[in-house]
């Protein structure tokens, strides 16, 4: 007999004489009530064991964490809290779990403890919910772009270029550390290496995606990216997933429209399909907020926040306006910011971004037209010669969730910029070809997938929304 998922049993519209279900025991009460979960849904199904007719040996093995197969009938529940339960006729222990040693005890564990047990944490309601929401959001991303006719491009993970020019890359090499081949000048001789040149893990698929946009029109990438920045924060991972659409003939305004529509679509998609999980996460966040002092509470519940994003346009504000607001803000005047904004040109820190979003505008914000000096080489220079057509989308509680721009499509200006920054033009010959042959206005952006999952789940640490986080000094599992 094929086993049925707990989700389908709980959604059943009628009782069923014979059912089979498999899962893991969450709790076993009074030698009688098994709360069984199989990961298909946040709820457990209650399985009522006829303990008088079940061998003592078997009852002893029904422990938290054990894998069991249960046969019985789906009946209307006598107790409160559930519509249906299973009247058990047979319990088979598939895999024992030593109740004393199993780390996921039926009690509240700290998130830190759960991170240390990332291989078992999806046995909890919280991590089951987070990872189901993450999965649905991934699918929503593909759904959105596929519906709109975008082509999904798999850009390389090992690259020979530094897309962001930030130099925060992990080297990929097959050279031995003890006998590194050297050139006559004493430098590492990458000609001897696997690829015959220096290579890294990609920080972004953008440059390759641009070449595809300039032939297929609308494309997107969705894959892992890597950054060796030593940022031990609740918003940074060394390995994270990025969604990068790139569209030929889109200017910055069209890019902003796309980003806003896309984010609203995927949030709505998750709200429609993850109702139970989001309700659970909403309640969790509310309980968490209650522990905080009044002035640190966010004021809005999770579901309320998500609804707010769906119903309100993102505020579009130029960098110059934002600097004025920040310069005149209370925390700046009272020296409450760690980095005081003195003048135009300053790079914005997350404290500034969060001030704009959470205190000033109280809504998602798209900042655009940043100083060229603080942005990447490929962004389109404005006529003022000092700002570029960049945009960052800032979200409450998250800060930057999207970074993007209109790209510099003019070959001469791009070459000049590359030279000024001391980037080797030879390295980018293929990228520059897009400007040599049929160049056109085009734009794109990158959305940090984990930051989106953070926002939608209401979690506050990025390590809790990716299965096995990679951060400085941590690559367990
Ligand atoms: O702003 P970033 O660096 O932009 C790019 O890489 C562009 N090439 C994207 C493009 O235009 N196609 O990164 C984009 C987004 C950020 O807004 C942030 O959400 C996320 O990626 N991000 C990170 N997420 C987690 N951990 C990190 N270390 C991240 N660095 C960036
Ligand atoms: Mg950025």
TrEMBL record:
Location, primary (coarse class): cytoplasm
Gene3D superfamilies hit by this protein: Bira Bifunctional Protein, Domain 2 (3.30.930.10), Nucleic acid-binding proteins (2.40.50.140)
Pfam assignment, any one: tRNA-synt_2
Record's GO cellular component terms: cytoplasm
An MF annotation (GO) of this entry: asparagine-tRNA ligase activity
Record field: catalytic activity: tRNA(Asn) + L-asparagine + ATP = L-asparaginyl-tRNA(Asn) + AMP + diphosphate + H(+)
Enzyme class: ligase
Localization (cell): Cytoplasm
Keyword annotations from UniProtKB, A to Z: Aminoacyl-tRNA synthetase, ATP-binding, Cytoplasm, Ligase, Nucleotide-binding, Protein biosynthesis
GO biological process: asparaginyl-tRNA aminoacylation
Domain annotation Aminoacyl-transfer RNA synthetases class-II family profile: ranges: 131-467
CDD domains linked to this entry: AsxRS_core (cd00776), EcAsnRS_like_N (cd04318)
InterPro entries associated with the record: Aa-tRNA-synt_II, aa-tRNA-synth_II, aa-tRNA-synth_II/BPL/LPL, Asn-tRNA-ligase, Asp/Asn-tRNA-synth_IIb, NA-bd_OB-fold, NA-bd_OB_tRNA
EC number assigned by the record: 6.1.1.22
Coiled coil: none
Entries under NCBIfam families matching the protein: asnS (TIGR00457), PRK03932.1 (NF003037)
Family: Belongs to the class-II aminoacyl-tRNA synthetase family.
SUBUNIT field: Homodimer.
Entry protein name: Asparagine--tRNA ligase
